Amino acid sequence: MPSAMRVIVVASQKGGAGKTTLAGHLAVEAELAGNGPVALIDTDPQGSLATWWNARDTAAPAFVRTDFTSLFHDVEQLREAGFRIVVIDTPPAVTRAIAEVVSFADLVVLPTRPSPHDLRAVGATVDIIEAKRKQMIFVVNGATPRARITSEAAVALSQHGTVAPVTIHHRVDFAASMIDGRTVMETDPSGSSSKEIKALWDYIATRLEKISRETVQPGAATGGLRPAAVVSPAVPPSERPGFGQRPSAMAPAPGPAASAPAASAPASAPARPAGPSSDQPVAAPARRLGGGTLGRPSPTFGRRAHT
Q1: Please, are residues 235 and 260 in contact by the beta-carbon 8 Å criterion?
Q2: Rounded distance, CA 123 to CA 209, Å?
Q3: In sequence order, which residues have a C-beta less than 8 Å from that of residue 103 and are 6 or more positions away?
Q4: pLDDT of residue 216
Q5: Burial of 303 (0-12, 13-18, 19+ CB in 10 A)
Q6: Which residues on adjacent β-strands are paired with residue 141?
Q7: What is the pLDDT of residues 254-303, one digit of tens each?
């Protein structure tokens, strides 16, 4: 059975974060970059990704429409068929079923728009990912070029995980390309949007390559994913502020000796998803994203300034 297949789960509690668009673009770029064969899995009942794929003129990437109860079987079928990359789109909700989808991930991608509402909604998804001990990256998505709020959002997110060094900006061509089943790389390969997606995939490929080196036996093939620049590690969990905390409540900044990245937690083995009852909401307290401000000198996300 092939062992080099890697699973990317695109997840966010917040609707409108751009999960489906990003999932489709990453899958197509992985194919264009020579990292295929690639498969897309749509677990969102809305079926937006299925509609987009049915409008495509090419069968690559492959597409699988499934549900949570058969996801384990479908993922294993793709592994046995020799697929190297699987990208899973998820619905905009935090349920036990979504938690099971995350359990299949080698890497979870969290697209987040640079707005207070989106930043506050990140906490519940991060809770699930941390509970499953999975690696994750934030992707600042739908950003306005040269807007101060974009950089401030990246700083706030960096307190709680790794932020991809590539920002995806809001442009009409993303939505326009999806109308007839294409992507910006296929409609305007030399455009700014295409360059951003290509750079983002390069970075994700590097993360997957690192995961492969950490999980396969010495000397085993890792799949030869494309290289890219590596960013600094995220702040260790023990030194991160809680969601909604003020900067003054944060732990003191670590010294030079504490700046080394912590060892990655071992990935848990995927379990067969639960049945229909798995769609019940996760009974976990919501967290608010803190550690940063949006255009204000003192209050953090979700907190009022004291008068």
Answers
A1: no
A2: 27
A3: 132, 134, 268, 270, 271
A4: 52
A5: middle
A6: 168
A7: 444 433 444 444 444 444 444 444 444 444 444 444 433 333 333 333 33
The residue written with tokens 């750079």 in the block is 199
The one-letter code for the residue type at 281 is P
> Under 8 Å CB-to-CB from 236, ≥6 apart: which residues?
254, 258, 261, 262
> Bridge-partner residues for 281, per DSSP?
95
Query: Maximum CA pair distance of the chain?
Result: 63
What average pLDDT does the chain have? 76
**What is the rounded (10 degree) CA torsion for 197, 198, 200, 202?**
160
| Cα 67 to the center of its chain, rounded Å | 20
CA distance 87 to 193: 20
Q: How confident is the model at residue 168 (pLDDT cuts 50, 70, 90)?
A: very high
Q: Which percentage of the chain shows pLDDT scores above 90?
A: 53
Residue type at position 129: I
Angle between helices 192-215 and 19-32 (to 10 degrees): 80
Adjacent-strand bridge partners of 140: 112
Q: Which residue has the tokens 């009942």?
A: 45
Residue type, 7: V
Radius of gyration of the chain (CA): 19
Question: Residue 5: CB partners within 8 Å, gap ≥ 6?
Answer: 78, 79, 83, 84, 85, 86
* Token pair for 272: 């067969």
Q: In the 8-state DSSP scheme, what is residue 273?
A: P
In this predicted model, what pLDDT tens digit does every residue of 209-221 receive, in sequence order?
A: 998 887 654 434 4
